[in-house]
Amino acid sequence: MIYTLIAIFIAGYLCIACEGRMKVNKAATALLMCGAMWLVLAVWGHDADIHHQMTDNLGDTCEILFYLIGAMAIVNLIDIHGGFSLLTRYITARRKIRLLWLVSGVTFVLSALLDNMTTSIIMVLLLRRLVPTERERWVFTGVVILSANSGGAWSPIGDITTIMLWMKGNVSAVALIVRLLLPCVVAVVLPVLLVGRLLDRSPLPPVAPAEEMSPSSARMSRLMLFAGIAALLFVPVFKEITGLSSYMGMMISLGAMWLLSEIIYGRHSAWDEAVTHRVSKVLRNTDLPTILFFLGVLMSVAVLQDAGVLNRVAAFLDKELHEVFLISGTVGVLSAVVDNVPLVAAAMAMYPVTAPDVVAAGADVAFAQCFVADGLFWHLLAYCVGVGGNLMVVGSAAGVVAMGLDHIGFGWYLKHFTLPALVGYLAGMGVIWVEHLLFAF
Hints:
Elements: H1 2-17, H2 19-22, H3 26-45, H4 50-80, H5 83-88, H6 96-113, H7 116-130, H8 134-153, H9 160-167, H10 173-195, H11 215-242, H12 246-267, H13 273-276, H14 279-284, H15 288-306, H16 309-320, H17 324-334, H18 340-350, H19 356-361, H20 365-369, H21 376-387, H22 397-406, H23 410-416, H24 418-439
Helix pairs in contact: 1-3, 1-15, 3-15, 4-7, 4-11, 4-12, 4-15, 6-7, 6-8, 7-8, 7-22, 8-10, 8-21, 8-22, 9-18, 10-24, 11-12, 15-22, 16-18, 17-21, 21-24
């Protein structure tokens, strides 16, 4: 059964990679892969609790899906009101390489404040206004993926995996930032230097000037822009204060934006935007194939977790490698294919936080010290599963979202971005190793 599940998973990913040649939407492939794997687990696994397992995994998956729906709706609401047009007026870089670095820097910082998925949605929609050529825009979108994943890895609220490690006490916020900021910067700078070769030296065409707005429409654009950004920033604050899941904060933010738009358009029903610009209309235009693609991939990975495949991999790494850099590095490479959330969950279960007094009494003291709170292993794990997602376009939530919104090709990303991302990934690990030697982290 295990080998059959792995074979279906690999075949599904290959079909997703060949989406352009097969002319089959990746969402259809992901859903078929998901259904086949659950069918095999149900028939061969003979587990009477299969329905409860599926329900539990669906609940975890739907948290991410509803978060994604809310974030996409708020960002699209900003866009439909011309909020991003206001931002593009302040971006005057016409040289492509300068704009590439600007996009990378903004994404890197923004993903640490929000999260890599929300940041990717914002930046991809913004790039549609700045870079008209699809193939060139793919280069910028690839850099958004690199920067969003690396920016989220050094922040306790920048990625779901760092949130997991932070909330469970494996890492502290200050130590995570201090020890991973420089490695994450290196993991972005080197790949951007390498992929900059894909852009020619011709200047970008001027951004088409936005249509002249009436004073009331201009005020509405500014209101929706600032309200939308505030709503997105509210989510990590809500998570930190209440401890509730991020998707609930996103639902509250979406409800607040919905209420705001209803109040405004209810008072000005003569506006042409009264029907087309309401949240109900925006939700009807949600990119449902991307949502279903996410559903298929996450539920397929859940099968591997429930079948014990990921736990077997963790046990194999512990037995055969038994070295924190090799273990974390391998887990990071796996996160380019398998969702990093179950990988981190498996690692946390495999290696519980070690108390200092237990370390002193243990035989392998140097190895055990890496697993204390804020130990080397936990920071390595946060870095590797975050930045390791850069190796493939489907290796992270940011990549999947960008792939769905901008239709970036799996094979194209593999050809042009995987090697530069690997260079940055290994260089960042090298920086962590040097920091560990110099400062005894």
